[in-house]
Design goal:
The complex is a heterodimer of chains A (618) and B (261). Chain A is of the alpha/beta class. Chain A is 40% helix and 13% strand. Chain A has 5 domains: 123 residues, Glutaredoxin, CATH 3.40.30.10; 211 residues, Rossmann fold, CATH 3.40.50.11540; 87 residues, Ubiquitin-like (UB roll), CATH 3.10.20.600; 88 residues, de novo design (two linked rop proteins), CATH 1.20.1440.230; 56 residues, Alpha-Beta Plaits (2-Layer Sandwich), CATH 3.30.70.20. Chain A is globular, with a radius of gyration of 26 Å. In chain A, 54% of the residues are buried. Helices cover 31% and strands 19% of the residues of chain B. In chain B, the strands form 3 sheets. Chain B has a 5-stranded mixed beta sheet with strand order 2-1-5-3-4, sandwiched between helices. A 4-stranded antiparallel beta sheet of chain B has the order 8-9-10-11. The relative contact order of chain B is 0.09. The chains are: A alpha/beta (618), B alpha+beta (261). Chains A and B meet through helix 18, helix 19 and helix 20 of A and strand 4 and helix 2 of B.
């Protein structure tokens, strides 16, 4: 069915909304990355077969919805019963009959599956009452968890493509750009360039054709914001791109998705096919003169292809290497033509900006960083998951208010923002408001929104080593400072971590870092030394402990630590003996166990299994 | 093209707007090191050695470091080619290259010019002579063959034919070997044959003197693409020159006779 006019789109929306109201109760099963990994697919099957078996009157198949990432990954798989909003956590197929009996047939809740408040232990019935959700403002993630991720009708039901209709019928390309500029939206991929200004540069470039490209090459370890949007709400990205194409007068769009996201490719492809069938992509969109289509371009798993010029080379089928951008890619981008390249999250913001107006978004956040930002909150924090907060929210509010604080109430040590090339911020920066400029001033960066929380058992030398290793592996190898410089920086970090480092090495690393930053060709190299630069800035003492005292205060760097069993605490339970993979622990039941240091590989398995905290690391 | 004036090391220099800065600096006889630059191919910006410091009056003291090979000249540019920071950067780059290629004469010599006699880092035990300037892959591209390319990434990047097999698109023209600044790319010649990248070629032999000219594949390709008659390659350069010399000699003789008459 082609939708040939905005009026027809509105009628469809009204019909879909009315149908949905008739459904009564709905079962929303989170099928985001985290919940899928925890068995959400089995849960969907369990609900299907159980509902089939029980033949509940009035319950229709359409009322079982597989939604995008609901956000609270820590507690997944998640099931929400709407319209009540009853929120079940860590649901297994075995819980399904009870949920159906209590919450679908009846109006009760299954208490053991409810979320319990951290402080009071009180069960919370709906997710609206939980701090993790209450303290968020969701714009880019607005539909995640609310609609079935496979259905265009669901997107239209909640007002999808209405912004596009508004643009096509009541606005000129210039007005669209003015609105986006008024919103103050800055690129969510990390650089924070003004989206409206970028669109304007492309629209006014007198060189044709113009291209619209979406960067879905999210590669930061631990980041899954864009993935969740592409998988769970693909139409919001398509709608944003179509609006952009109208504004910059483009006919061809590409979404570049990394190879590691097969589900995102699948869901986007399905969404594109649906949109074409509805006449929302292709020739004469919504019965107007405007035509635009989108192709998916798959990366081959290179982190550097998230860099704009490398991405465009990769789309064009060449080796994904960046080029010098003394002429910007908005003027000379894909196939050397003017190109708008925006991140997934940026595009997802566009329909809302058009629908509610640029001023509406500009009122959220801070004056220079407007709107909200999605983060994947991971690491040693209680509530890991996908969150979205207004710009300017403090790190403390994110980590303690939403994240629920550090696991096991250990002291906070640092938070890494901005992905591998971002920086580590220490405890005295917890009250910094999170926005583009503040983070940059604190020698970190916004990046695409990865946020990794570390506690006192994290060693910053080890962290720097880890991220440097990542960047050494992911450097494209084109230019010398990045290819050879990061390699040597990583080697030197290894020396320090192994206890072989000297203070002269530290000085060499600092000098090398400066030159890599000045000399590298693209953003990857220019920010490559950041894992070292930011940790040495805030944690120099810890580096020196490795060098001078040959100690790793966090007990991580294996060359500098030893595990010992404290005789007074050991009750001879044998647990550590069974856990040790190299048979380094001797002892009999009821007798104090001893670790043979010559055999011990310092994996820490003994410490992890000991119930009496008898294993100590020093 | 409009002529503009820029300032280089305190001196006013005239240049064409839009031409690359390195070309201007070289024309002014300023010694700028570079290993990945060559007039046969487009600038690439990989070795970073030609980095210079630039600023403009309106930047109010803010400076930027750009690779001169890729930076288009515009009026008002103020360039310093040997500021302390630039020299320090070049020294670091050569230091890094020396660690990776400790036995490569070109690198040893360039590093020595910047005072680096021994690398600050650990020498790569398996350091070869390929400095990853990518001149070979780019010249192959420019020749229209794309027979070889860089493969892999990061520290493991190298130049290779597809799947490390004899490259199907190679015609044995030797452009890659001839442009290679360190002599890393080698080839063998034997009688009427040649081998490069593990692929063997038969040479076209001169119908006059019997000397090998170019490979059959290259001759066929040039004939097909550039409309040079295939027969042209049946005569070697030396014999072509001899023939030309003979013709010129005859013309000179004829001219002298004409003048005498």
């Amino acid at each position: 069915m082609k939708i040939t006019s905005p009026a027809q789109l509105s009628r469809l929306q009204t019909d879909l909304a009315a149908q949905d109201k008739k459904l009564g109760k709905k079962v929303m099963i989170c099928c985001g990355p985290g919940c899928l990994a925890n068995g959400a697919t089995k849960l969907v099957q369990a609900f299907r077969s159980e509902l089939e078996k029980k033949r509940i009157r009035d319950f229709r198949v359409e009322a079982l919805k597989e939604t995008g990432c609901h956000g609270f990954c820590e507690k997944g798989p998640l099931v929400v019963i709407e319209p009540q909003g009853t929120f079940y956590t860590r649901v297994t197929p075995a819980d399904v009959p009870e949920i159906i009996e209590q919450s679908i047939r009846g109006n009760q809740t299954v208490e053991r599956l409810l979320y319990r408040d951290q402080a009071t232990g009180e069960p919370k019935t709906t997710y609206h009452e939980i701090d993790f959700y209450r303290k968020q403002t969701r714009i880019a993630l607005r539909n995640l968890g609310k609609i079935d991720q496979y259905s265009i009708d669901e997107y239209i039901r909640v007002g999808g493509y209405q912004a596009l209709a508004k643009v096509l019928t009541t606005m000129t390309p210039d007005q669209v750009i003015t609105e986006v500029k008024a919103s103050g939206l800055r690129g969510r991929g990390g650089a924070g360039f003004h989206t409206g200004r970028k669109w304007e540069s492309c629209a006014t470039a007198d060189d044709w054709p113009h291209y619209v490209v979406c960067n879905g090459d999210e590669g930061d370890p631990g980041a899954f914001m864009d993935r969740s949007i592409m998988e769970g709400d693909p139409h919001s990205v398509l709608e944003g791109m179509i609006i952009c194409a109208f504004a910059v007068k483009s006919k061809d769009g590409y979404i570049y998705v990394r190879e590691e996201y097969p589900l995102a490719v699948q869901n986007l492809q399905r969404a594109i096919t649906q949109a074409r069938a509805y006449g929302l992509l292709g020739e004469g969109i919504l019965g107007t003169e405007f035509s635009f289509d989108i192709k998916i371009s798959r990366g081959a798993g290179a982190f550097v292809c998230g860099e704009s010029s490398a991405l465009m080379k990769s789309v064009a089928g060449e080796v994904g290497e960046p080029r010098a951008k003394y002429v910007r890619s908005v003027l000379k981008g894909l196939y050397d033509k003017p190109t708008v390249l925006n991140n997934v999250e940026s595009y997802a913001n566009i329909p809302v900006i058009i629908a509610k107006g640029g001023a509406w978004l500009a009122a959220i956040g801070t004056p220079k960083s407007t709107g909200t930002k999605a983060f994947s909150l991971v690491g040693k924090v209680r509530n890991t998951g996908l969150i979205e907060v207004p710009m300017g929210t403090t790190l403390r509010e994110i980590i303690y208010g939403i994240g629920g604080g550090i696991l096991h109430d250990r002291p906070f040590k640092a938070v890494q923002t901005g992905g591998p090339s971002g920086g580590c911020l220490p405890a005295d920066k917890l009250d910094l408001p999170v926005d583009f400029d503040t983070l940059t001033d604190a020698y970190s960066m916004m990046g695409s929104g990865g946020m990794i929380v570390m506690d006192e058992r994290t060693c910053v030398v080890d962290v720097a080593k880890y991220f440097l290793h990542f960047l050494v592996e992911e450097s494209c190898g084109k230019c010398t400072p990045c290819r050879e410089g990061l390699f040597q920086l990583h080697e030197l970090a290894n020396r320090i971590s192994d206890g072989r480092g000297t203070e002269a090495d530290l000085a060499l690393m600092e000098k090398l870092s400066e030159n890599i930053i000045i000399g590298s060709l693209c953003g990857l190299g220019k920010s490559g030394p950041n894992p070292f630069v930011s940790t040495i800035r805030y944690f120099r003492e810890e580096y020196l402990a490795h060098i001078r005292d040959h100690k790793c205060p966090a007990g991580v760097c294996t060359a500098l630590i030893r595990y010992d069993i404290v005789a007074e605490k050991c009750d001879g339970c044998m647990a550590c003996i069974h856990a040790c993979a190299v048979n380094a622990i001797t002892g009999r039941k009821g007798k104090v166990h001893v670790i043979n240091q010559d055999i011990c590989t310092k994996c820490g398995a003994c410490m992890a299994v000991c119930r009496r905290d008898a294993v100590e690391v020093a | 093209m409009a002529t503009v004036t820029i300032q280089v090391n305190g001196r006013a220099v005239r240049a064409e707007k839009g031409e690359m800065l390195l070309a201007v600096l070289r024309r002014e006889k300023i010694d700028i090191p570079a290993t990945c630059n060559h007039e046969a191919v487009e600038a690439f910006g990989a070795c970073r050695l030609c980095t210079v410091e630039i600023t403009r009056d309106e930047w109010k003291g803010w400076k930027n470091y750009v690779t001169s090979c890729l930076y288009p000249v515009e009026a008002g540019l103020i360039v310093r080619t040997h500021s302390d920071t630039v020299i320090e950067l070049r020294r670091t780059l050569l230091d890094l290259q020396l660690a990776r290629h400790p036995r490569t004469p070109l690198i040893q010599q360039m590093a020595a010019e910047y005072g680096v006699l021994k690398t600050s880092y650990e020498e790569a035990p398996d350091g070869d002579d390929c400095i990853l300037c990518a001149l070979c892959t780019r010249v192959c591209d420019a020749m229209g063959f794309r027979a070889i390319s860089t493969v892999g990434r990061g520290h493991g990047k190298r130049v290779a034919p597809p799947l490390d097999q004899p490259p199907p698109d190679c015609v044995g023209c030797l452009a890659c070997a001839q442009i290679c600044p360190t002599g890393f790319i080698t080839y063998k010649e034997f009688g009427a044959g040649r081998e490069i990248w593990g692929k063997q070629f038969q040479m076209v032999t001169c119908t006059r003197c019997g000397a090998p000219t170019i490979t059959r594949e290259f001759a066929d390709n040039l004939a097909a693409r550039r409309e040079i008659p295939r027969e042209y390659f049946d005569v070697c350069d030396a014999c072509h020159r001899a023939e030309l010399a003979g013709t010129m000699g005859r013309i000179a003789q004829w001219n002298r006779e004409e003048a005498a008459r």
